[in-house]
Each structure stands twice: as C-alpha cells, then as structure tokens.
Amino acid sequence: MYYRILINILPTPSKVHYIFNLRDLAKLAQGLMQASPMNITNQERLAILFSHECLRVFSDRLVTEYDREIFSKHLNTTINCYFKINLNLANDPNNPLLFCNFLKSDDRLYQQLNDWKQCCPIFLDYQMKHNLSEHSPLKMVFFKEAVEHVLRICRVLQQPGGHLLLIGFDGTGRRTCLELGAYISGHSMYELTIKRGYGYQEFRDDLKIVKIRNSILQQKNKQTVC
Question: Tens of pLDDT along 142-186?
Fold first, then answer.
C-alpha cells in the first residue's frame, strides 16, 4: 500500500505535502499495534483495521476528491489481493470508518465504531467533566465532522511522540477539538501565549517551561500537549 501511494499520488506545486516516507509506514504499523486480539478475531476485522490505519496515515493528507478516489481504488485492490476479501471500502463521507479506545473506559480497547453518533454521549460526558475540573470551559456541538476530528486527534495523541497539524480558519473549533482530545487522552494542555514582541528567546523560555512541566507530569504517568 505504501508503494502504491508513493508511485501514484505524487507531490505538485499545489500539493507539496504529498511526500510519503518510511515514517508513514512506521506510523501505519504503530496504529495496527494499538489493537487487541480480543477484538481482532478474524481476517475481515484485521482487514478493516488495516484500512482504517491507511485512511488515517495516508488519506487524511489528501486534499482533493480525485486523489481520495485514487486512494480508495488502491486500498480496495490491496485488501482484495492480500486478504482475499472484497470489502469495497471507500472513504464514504456518510458512513466513515472510525476506531477509538474509550467506548469502555475500564478496558481501553481499540475498536471499531458502528456509527459516529456512538461517541456523542461519551464526548458530552467528558466535556462536562472537563468543565468541572478545568478553568476554561468547553462549549462544543458534536456533529459528524467534529466527532471525526476529535477521534483523529485522540488517535495521534495516544501514540508515542504523536504530533499533528490542525489547519483551518479562526473560529472553526481547532483549539476546542484539541483540548477535548487531550482531556480524553488523559493529557495536560499547555498553550503558548503569543503577543507583540514574541520572538525566539520567548519561545525558548516557553519550551523550558513545557520540558519542566512534562518531567513532573511523567512521574504521574501523564503527558503534555503543547
């Protein structure tokens, strides 16, 4: 699948971020390792999990519908060739393929969602707990795209050294999604305060604060999101 993407979906001047390397292959393997044998009990479920991780690692970087269609064709071909299963998986916006590990908070099993609406009451519960324990209250409407974004954020933050870039206009909810995702993942959030005259030295000072804070939180088995 990695070589299919590498050869057929190439970078252009308007898509300079279409650069895939072995780090993406490692991220794909890292995502697969989140699963438990308790859930992945047959070949079909493994194929679905593999498809989901390919969507997160490769497809989420694509910006046009044409590129996503090319990706879906290669994904279906790969699944059919190696798993001998015809899942006919496409990146259907009305029925997205989603996984999470907080449907049951006691076991944290990485498992597939039957429907994105399954997360709405769980997110609402986390939002209420956050507003009771944190100084900055969250006010979020859980529509389909917002739920998908929070799930993507949780998946990345729960991986070792996970990082992501949120792109969008001001007021579209990027910070809110990140704050909720960090809270669900059990991470503490530190936000840089950008003001007039903020430069390299100020950034270094903030970085020192983050390092010290992270060292203290690691003793409590917690991580910091910056």
Answer: 999 999 999 999 999 888 888 888 888 888 888 899 999 989 988
Question: Distance between CA atoms of 182 and 49, rounded to whole angstroms?
Answer: 23
Q: Which two tokens stand for residue 147?
A: 């739920």
- Per-residue pLDDT tens digits for 116-148: 999 999 999 999 998 888 777 888 889 999 999
- What region does 186 belong to: left with phi over 0, alpha with psi -120 to 50, or beta? left
In 3D space, the residue among 96, 58, 63, 62 whose CA is nearest the CA of residue 78 turns out to be 58
Q: For residue 102, what pLDDT is reported?
A: 87
Helix pair 43-57, 65-82: axis angle to 10 deg: 150
Count CB atoms within 10 A of the CB of residue 202: 14
Give 194's contacts (C-beta < 8 A, 6+ positions apart): none
| 90 is a domain residue | no
- The residue segments making up the domain with residue 195 are 190-226
Whether residues 71 and 143 fall in one domain: no
| Radius of gyration, alpha carbons of the chain | 19
pLDDT of residue 161: 80
- Look up the pTM and report it: 0.87
Phi, psi dihedral angles at 134 (to 5 degrees)? -110, 160
Rounded CA-CA distance 40/111 in Å is: 9
Residue 111 β-bridge partners: 100
Task: Take residue 168 and report the two structure tokens written for it.
Answer: 């969008």
